[in-house]
Specification:
68 residues; mainly beta
Length: 68
């Protein structure tokens, strides 16, 4: 399995556990898709994706709050 650096984890957003990522990756639309797997410290499945104020915002399956 090849690993690619997609961007930098910047912060969380809101209380639902959304993650803010700063990325200049060229093919974000192909990588940040619902159901794709990303690795932060372990594999996670992307639950949602959107762009907000120049940041890529994702939620992960099994992470339902900022405390998770």
């Amino acid at each position: 399995m090849n690993k690619i650096v997609l961007g930098k984890y910047v912060n969380t957003h809101g209380i639902k556990g959304e993650i803010r990522i700063k990325s200049h990756f060229k093919y974000k639309d192909k990588v940040f898709k619902i159901g794709n797997e990303i690795i932060i410290d372990k594999p996670y499945t992307i639950n949602s994706y959107r762009v907000h104020k120049g940041y890529d915002m994702i939620t992960l399956k099994g992470i339902n709050s900022i405390n998770d």
